[in-house]
Design goal:
- With 107 residues, the chain is mainly alpha-helical.
- The protein is 70% helix and 0% strand.
Length: 107
């Protein structure tokens, strides 16, 4: 809601500033994503979609009647649930690689 005050549809900051705001919010939402990414329920996914939709509408200065999927495509953004799952996969692959390197005896 507070984002709407900064990023009004009429006037307001340029697209670069709007992208900066949304990237900050994205990093806050995806904090510790590897931990909770595998436990996304339908309710949590719905809440994440609602947040992401508002962000994309604010970036594009679009009307609120636009669908979530259309807003994501036009704003060139990925859903939070997908980003969280990708972050989790990368985290666990890096962790597995580090664990394997520690078990290999050094010469």
């Amino acid at each position: 809601m507070h984002l709407g005050r900064f990023l009004s549809n009429i006037g307001g900051p340029a697209v670069k500033a709007r992208r900066l705001y949304t990237e900050v919010i994205k990093s806050m939402i995806l904090y510790e994503a590897p931990i909770w990414a595998n436990y996304i329920t339908k309710e949590k996914d719905k809440a994440l979609r609602r947040i992401r939709r508002r962000m994309t509408i604010r970036i594009m200065k679009a009307y609120r009647t636009i669908s979530h999927d259309a807003a994501l495509i036009l704003a060139s953004m990925t859903p939070f649930s997908t980003l969280a799952k990708v972050d989790a996969k990368i985290f666990y692959q890096v962790r597995l690689t580090r664990d394997n390197e520690e078990t290999i005896p050094r010469m």
